[in-house]
Amino acid sequence: MSNLDELRKRIAYFIDPQNGEFEDDDLLEKATLILKKTPAYRIYGLLGDAILKVVVYEELLRESEPLLQGEMHEINKGSEMNDVLGEFGESKLALSRYIDVTNPSVKEHPEKSLPLYANVFEAIVGVIFLKYDYETASTFLENIGYKKLIYEKTDLITQEING
User: Fold this and answer.
1) Alpha-carbon span 58 to 14, nearest angstrom
2) CATH code, domain with 62
3) Which of 18, 51, 89, 134 has its CA 20 to 30 A from that of 123?
4) 67 to 21, 49, 147, 148: CA distances (angstroms)
């Protein structure tokens, strides 16, 4: 079994733990192939980032006490969220095992690669959305624990802001 087949099985499990399938043609390969000359993963990553933001805002709108705009901005804040998302993607999908990189220092120093893992996680979400739909991407994010992560991060930020 190839590395990508193993990753497909992991993704399929989080899409549907009972009988999940993930047929992606070559989209997953493009999402995990990190090349400076062909950054397809970045395009999928932008789409995945947008889906992640929609999921975050959708969940936050369901809160009994809506967050202020500043609080919502803090939740999606740049590099800090990249590290959180990178750690999350690595812990749930073992992304370092599947990412095909041309730079060997990424494999040698995975602790410095959290932003890369975040980008690839976003790209995977983008691929799920492209191949299926928003509902499937949202289900994947719920099953993998991303929505729980949102609530944990939201609680920490509101505690910081409120004192």
Assistant:
1) 20
2) 1.10.1520.10
3) 18
4) 36, 20, 16, 17
